[in-house]
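From the methods appendix. Each design record in this collection lists the tokenized structure first, followed by the designed amino acid sequence. Records were kept in a plain field format so they could be parsed without special tools. The example shown here is representative of the layout used throughout.

RECORD:
FOLD TOKENS (61 positions):
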């Protein structure tokens, strides 16, 4: 797993809302599938980089 590539993808899909980065939950799932990693890994990376995951469908975030 190349964390830089994953973060590039996350950052590419982030929205800026009130000066803070946000990532839609559905996109987090797509990125996890694309890189064959767990959704919780995406969550951990987002937390480390102050990115809020929004509109979670199943209560993961």
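DESIGN:
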């Amino acid at each position: 797993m190349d964390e830089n590539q994953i973060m590039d993808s996350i950052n590419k899909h982030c929205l800026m809302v009130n000066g803070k980065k946000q990532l839609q939950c559905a996109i987090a799932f797509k990125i996890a599938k694309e890189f064959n990693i767990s959704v919780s890994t995406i969550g951990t990376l987002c937390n480390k980089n102050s990115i809020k995951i929004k509109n979670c469908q199943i209560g993961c975030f």
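APPENDIX NOTE: The CA atoms of residues 18 and 40 lie 25 Å apart.
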